Amino acid sequence: MRKGLFALAAVGLLATGSVAACGDDKGSDSGSGSGSSSAGKVGVILPDTKSSQRWGTDDPKFLKAAFEAAGVQVDIQNAQGDKTAFQTIADGMISSGVKVLMIVNLDSGTGKAVLEKAKKAGIATIDYDRLTLSGGADYYVSFDNVKVGELQGQGLVDCLTAKKYTKPVVAELNGSPTDNNATLFAQGYNSVLDPKYADGTFTKGPNQDVPDWDNAQAGTIFEQMLTSNKNIKGVLAANDGLGNAAISVLKKNKLNGQVPVTGQDATVQGLQNILAGDQCMTVYKAIKKEADAASELAIALAKGEKPTTATGTTKDPESGASVPSVLLTPVSITKESVKDVIADGFVTKDAVCTADFAKACTEAGIS
Ligand code: BGC
């Protein structure tokens, strides 16, 4: 599959070779040359660089590559967690004449304001990764986010079962309450955990949302959880950043490794925590596929075409609208499968298998 995608990208590069080669490459903030003659410019706004490694590293890299391969000009900017900046960036992109605007909202309110402005200006819109509630985007590209949560819930069940604890207390660190994905993740993991609480296999412990997926706040929240409930035996953390915050607190209390913690995003840190035995699992979402799917739509829209690559629809739970969608499949990763994430080219062996993790890497079959 990956080979296929690379081959496709290579063909795209050949077809627009001269344009891409002559492009003034000013980094991720700039376009790739003058673009193919018939296509307009695409604007992409990413949310922050702190809530997950992906927004500063993976998404911009894969998106830039996809647009460059097609010779379509792209302006990728990051709002750094600032909602005012998010809107200012959008205003700038709209007045600069982008033909397509792709956003990862910081919350549905500001996302919606931006999408509406874009629509008024005749710009096609794509919700990337996060659905903007009542936003009315033309397309939505993401993963099956309920499935992400189910994998996290099942991962925790498997790790806790292996520990053979009796009625272990499970704490839940949810994502940002303003991120529709966090709602979907929770829907997924609670569909697995609630029956376990109900039949007495597990004990329901503290459960809290982490505003803006803020890792530092997650640490404070988890510290309080552990202080008031010393018996916590498992942590459902909604992504690797929140998981690492919990692991840091567990380390301080010499409980790391005894209390399974979940995650998401297959970040370098998350994978290392798994190799060290401090994290139970993560969820790998192939960002390259997500970026490729979204840019394929955006490129068609930039050329004035009506893309047909969206294979399904997502119902906006607020407005009831059906949004044409591409939803990809997430994969659960444990110690045994860390090597698959490396084999897929998402992270390098060098990044994961640093000196501290060399032995664990060998044991996990990473060569
Ligand atoms: C994304 C996750 C990410 C989280 C925090 C979610 O909307 O789907 O991949 O970890 O936001 O940035």
From TrEMBL:
UniProt domain Periplasmic binding protein: residue ranges: 45-306
Signal: present as a keyword of the record? yes
Q: Which GO terms describe its cellular component?
A: outer membrane-bounded periplasmic space
Stretches of Low complexity bias are at 29-44
Does the record bear Phosphoprotein in its keywords? Answer: no
Q: Which SUPFAM superfamilies match?
A: Periplasmic binding protein-like I (SSF53822)
- Designated name of the protein: D-xylose transport system substrate-binding protein
The species this protein belongs to is Paractinoplanes atraurantiacus
